[in-house]
């Protein structure tokens, strides 16, 4: 039989100092918050050239099929949601789980409009790299008066 005991219950029975009990409880609360289903904001690097921008996002634990990138004018959005973890073997049920792949989401608004048709996305080794091409600036246009 496999029995999981909450560390807080162990510290109460063992008669640890109250400060120790608070530290253990704070640690457990932080771990629970870190595993929440809310999206995490991935780390990002941005560089600019005359032709466009290069954005790199860290997406550990994600495969390229799980990444969605959208461009709307000046706004770039990246979302990545892992597939739900299945049981290791047929007929087995999960008793306890601490490991989970996080969901990532981030939106960035850049100073100029982007050309989505010529921009590119590449995913390798958990890093998403976007090469975003700036839309060419069009000067003022004239309208003929009828």
Please tell me about this protein's structure.
With 146 residues, the protein is of the alpha+beta class. The chain folds into two domains: 34 residues, no CATH class; 90 residues, Immunoglobulin-like. The protein contains two helices and seven strands; from the N terminus they run ααβββββββ.
Task: Furnish the topology, listing elements before pairings.
Layout: H1 7-14, H2 18-34, E1 44-48, E2 52-58, E3 67-72, E4 75-80, E5 104-109, E6 114-124, E7 127-134
Antiparallel strand pairs: 1-2, 2-7, 3-4, 4-5, 6-7
Helix pairs in contact: 1-2
- What is the H/E string? HHEEEEEEE
**Average pLDDT, to the nearest integer?**
80
Strand content: 25-35%
List the strand order in the largest sheet.
1-2-7-6
- Give start-end ranges of low-pLDDT stretches: 32-36
Largest sheet: 4 strands, antiparallel
Number of helices: 2
In summary, what is this structure?
Helix content is 17%, strand content 34%. With 146 residues, the chain is an alpha+beta fold.
Note the main attributes of this structure.
single chain, 146 residues, alpha+beta, Immunoglobulin-like, 2 domains, 4-stranded antiparallel β-sheet, 3-stranded antiparallel β-sheet
């Amino acid at each position: 039989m496999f029995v999981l005991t909450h560390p807080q219950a162990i510290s109460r029975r063992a008669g640890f100092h109250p400060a120790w009990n608070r530290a253990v409880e704070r640690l457990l609360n932080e771990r629970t918050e870190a595993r929440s289903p809310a999206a995490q904001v991935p780390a990002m690097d941005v560089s600019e050239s005359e032709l466009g921008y290069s954005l790199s996002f860290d997406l550990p634990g994600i495969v390229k099929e799980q990444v969605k990138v959208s461009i709307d004018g000046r706004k770039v959005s990246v979302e990545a949601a892992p597939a739900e973890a299945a049981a290791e073997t047929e007929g087995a049920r999960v008793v306890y789980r601490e490991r989970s792949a996080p969901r990532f989401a981030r939106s960035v608004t850049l100073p100029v409009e982007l050309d989505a048709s010529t921009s590119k996305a590449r995913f390798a080794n958990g890093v998403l790299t976007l090469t975003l091409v700036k839309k060419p600036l069009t000067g003022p246009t004239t309208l003929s008066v009828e």
